[in-house]
Amino acid sequence: MSKNNQAAGKTFIFGEYTALYGSPALILTTPPYFTLTTTPANTLTSNIHPESPAGKFIAANIDFFQHLHVEFSDPYLPVGGFGASTAQFLLVYALKHPTIKDPKKLLLDYLEVAWDGTGNAPSGADLMAQYAGGITFFDKNKNILKSYPWPFPELEYGLIHTGNKIPTHTHLKKLPAFDRIALENIALHGINYFITANGTDWLESINHFADALDAQQLVAEHTLLLLDKLAACPDILAKKGCGALGADVILILFHKEKSANVLHFLKKNHFHLIQHGMRVGNSAF
Question: Do 149 and 135 form a contact (C-beta atoms < 8 A)?
């Protein structure tokens, strides 16, 4: 399978709300991968919803797609999440544009089909992360896109699915006002700790960011309940709900040497662990 037939899942570490204003975000990409397969067909057939960004892109480029069967595979079903919509768009876009040398144009083309002008436009930071892979630093205002490997040999991550799903595009249409500066300041410090591989302060900043999201009522109630349950495990050093209202996914961090203890706790308490370790996703290109 060639690279641009697959895209990693994504999880926001910092910046899911402030990125809406072009501020920096740090995003973890991970396997398993979304995949797209195509086969010749007499007429276009696809399992992609026509009103999704990918579906709209296909419709706008029907001459290219009209004799293809397009099949998108989501490894996270039935729970969903992890950037399925942006992965769909990225992989469909890559069919038409096999080599993308200008991620800025990719982002602009995405926003053209992803936003109807109501409420807040999506940041596209998740799309940029799936394009770049690794742990992505994206600063739209400064036009910076950079991918990093996992920098903490002593730490592992875990991604827990909450069993719930809030459509991001729906949430953005009704997003209330929030203190952007407060969140941005925490995110900037946290990103700096990541880049300088300061694990202790990075963990603290993740918890600080999670508390700030909660204080601004930007965390779903069901996620808060799960975070409270996770607090019973002393080996979990940092935890936060990720993405829109932290609704779908919870990120946890712990020492590698305590991995067995954490995994036992999660299994005993029936948490749905999707992925864990140090491995990060590959670029889609």
Answer: yes
Task: Please compute, for residue 47, the number of CA atoms within 13 A of its CA located in the half-sphere on the CB side.
Answer: 9
- Tokens in use for 86? 């942006």
pLDDT digits (tens, 9 = 90+) for 5-49: 999 999 999 999 999 999 999 999 999 999 999 999 999 999 999
The owner of tokens 């800025």 is 104
Spans in the chain with pLDDT lower than 70: 1-4
Domain with CATH 3.30.70.890 in the chain: 155-276
All CATH 3.30.230.10 domain ranges of the chain, comma separated, are 3-148
The pLDDT tens digits of the residues spanning 163-194 come to 988 777 778 777 878 999 999 999 999 999 99
Class of domain 3-148: alpha beta
**Cβ within 8 Å of residue 30, ≥6 positions away:** 8, 9, 10, 11, 82, 159, 275, 279, 280, 281
Q: Which CATH architecture has domain 155-276?
A: 2-Layer Sandwich (3.30)
Rounded CA separation 178/201 (Å): 25
Characterize the bridge pairing of strands 155-161 and 249-255. antiparallel
